[in-house]
Fold this protein.
Amino acid sequence: MPILQTIQLTKQYQMGAVTVNALNQVDLSIDKGDFVAIMGPSGSGKSTLLHLMGGLDTPTSGEIVLAGQSLSTLSDYELTRIRRLKVGFIFQFYNLIPTLSAAENIALPMLIDGKPLRHYRGRLEELLELVGLADRATHKPDQLSGGQQQRVAIARAFINQPEIVLADEPTGNLDTHSGMAILDVLQRSCAELSATIVMVTHDPRAASYAQKVIFLQDGRIVKTLVCQDRETALPSIMSEMAALEV
């Protein structure tokens, strides 16, 4: 069974008398351990799709099934709990709490749930090691570079061992070198944690780190590209994006 499925997923917005189809009957299946990139021109529905998959918004019609559970059947309380326990989020801006250390920011979801941190010390140390911040655990956000802050945000997304991690332009606020380092971390997370990641990006280089790239146009999936390796994937991704943006 896939970790996440969308079935005829549709999202419409009303702009005055005009109905805008942000997403139009999208069928998508994500398996455990997949690293999927979503690309498309501005306004193609990328972020809308990501927000719907994470339960941050509700569809006009269609279905989202996460770990075998239909999100449309859940109450607001249940949906909030699902987001907290089964979905990890990584955003372009790091959203760290400035008064907390790196380790405390990573552990924040556990603290919110009232879980004793002593039971998860090993998990916290594993994630600090994975993101290369074992020697920065006590540093506050203003003592960390942008790339290091994003590493903290990545580790925080994985602390609860979520079913899926959704990343919205995770390298968009970083320089090229830092961005590539973050993508290496995401790629290793799939390999070492058996993580499942869906990443929205406008950058073909970022998308080339994924195993699969899904292209959206006008709210529909128009192409799916399986990436064998970064070197061969990048020209194909760039070609597809150029065709869509004409």
